[in-house]
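2024-03-11 09:14:02 DEBUG pipeline.ingest accepted 1 chain
2024-03-11 09:14:02 DEBUG pipeline.ingest length=592
2024-03-11 09:14:03 DEBUG pipeline.predict start
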Amino acid sequence: MHTVKRRNRQTGLAFLGIACLTIAFVGIGTAQAQTTLAEFSGADQQRLKSRAFKLDQPQVINFSISGSPLQKSMLTKIGESFVQRDYSVNLSAWIINSNDRSTVWELDNGTIKALDDEGGPRLNDEISLPAGEYEVYIFPIQFVKSVSIIGLIKYNTSEDNSEFEQEIADFLRTLKITVTGKGSPLPADFAQQRVASLQRQAFVSLPAREAQRNMEAGFSLTNQADIRVYAVGELYMDGRYDYAWIEDVNSGEHVWEMNHDNSAAAGGAAKNRRVNKLVSLPPGDYAAHFVSDDSHYYGNWNDAPPHDPAFWGLHLFNENGVAQVSSFNIEQHMRNNLIVDMRTQRDYAFQTRGFSLDHEQNVRIQATGEGMAGHMVDYGYIVDASTGKRVWEMRFSESQHAGGAFKNRVVRSNLKLPAGSYVAYYLSDDSHSYDSWNDSPPSTPSDWGLMILGGRDFDKSSVRTFNPSDTRLEVAAITQIGDDQTRSQNFSLDEMSTLNVVAIGEGSSGRMYDYAWITRAGDGQVVWEMTYSMTSHAGGSYKNRQYVGTISLPAGSYVLHYRSDDSHSFAAWNDNPPTDAGRYGVSLYHSR
């Protein structure tokens, strides 16, 4: 007889007050006196099917499987060689308590093979259950094993498999799965209605039904409370693909995140993980999130689904009704607090946004980009518009994995900025960006770029925006220099002035190859020049050099110059670019 796996597991939604179930093994022999509770006539490969039934009293029910033979081995000629395929069908089957969502029975390993050439698959198992309502699920998965018979060195995976696919389909159509007992079948939509009823009890309900979605909902707590977190998703030890988190919207802090360590097996494929726990939260405003990737989700499973498939996503419940909770529109909250939005950035991006603060403000920064080997290639930063000095930058060392490929990185920062004017920058290289990924995209692809939001006690009335190229802030600038360029710009000073200088160029062995200088307009006399000895490393390749300092000039007319050689410039780097690649060149600012 086929073996089954029985577990007495604390897997139910305990907050609903339903006791968990103990499964006992009882010998076969009472099925003939029972009525049909659930029946599946035929199965489809990788298609989830379910039925529901009700037991009015504790009893033993019978789970049986029958079907026609499956031809276990087939020979196919490829060129001068023959390949033998051995077939098996993995059938996932399980039963859950419809109220507390606990698994009360599951088929061990699920492998159903033809017993011999004369008979088909057979299984009879008896399960002891208390009174209650239950859901039965089946999900067949095909496995194929190929073995070389004669002279085959390399297996040709592109050959036509239609004959073998038809063999499997014919076999699955003959499967008959029956659950019998002293009870009654429930309507076909019972499980759907029960799930909908339970989800309505959640104050946050984010069921994942589509690929590549970022779902979110805002909620506020006015008291310290334990909330029940019930989340089902796709996670590995080294990566998260469908998962949830809760964020403090004022600080940007992730107060809870779903990961492999704080989740448990959810049944089915090993990558299915579940969280069912209490999370204590202080009073505050929060955003609940659930993200899904491009495969393996409710209605489109690429492996055995979890045992509670309809709850794929995130649900938050008010444990015992103690939380004083209300909801708010998270999109409206973001619009009310948005200062800079430079997301959905594509290849070769160089974006700037200027903003001013009338008084000191707390801000939240979220930047998503590409980084490898400790170096960011798609990244953002913020500079003081009056000095050109950087006040924040996206560093690989401070980043976290953003989902998908490991090079997808995200940085979340909280910053207190004094009154003043600032410029936000975002740059990207020639590949792997929004809507043009060369590897798996991040969990929230539309966040690729930089976003700045007001933080705690944000006063939006104190925020102004401006054009970063406004000459009232910038005296003169020559930036984004390409190869073999000599450029200049005139400027005038009405009085003795101290100017802040940000100059970035290329230099090595004591010599500058891309550099800046200033001359008097009348006689061409050099009044300042960028030399190697005054520079420091500008990030990236060591030949990237920068000067950040001040110069004092009397009233008069001047010319700002910049010259580059035939390689390594903003247009085409031949080594790692400087950190502040977007300002490759020279900029002059009025000093405070």
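2024-03-11 09:14:41 DEBUG pipeline.report Residues 1-11, 15-32, 147-159 have pLDDT under 50 and may be disordered.
2024-03-11 09:14:41 DEBUG pipeline.predict end
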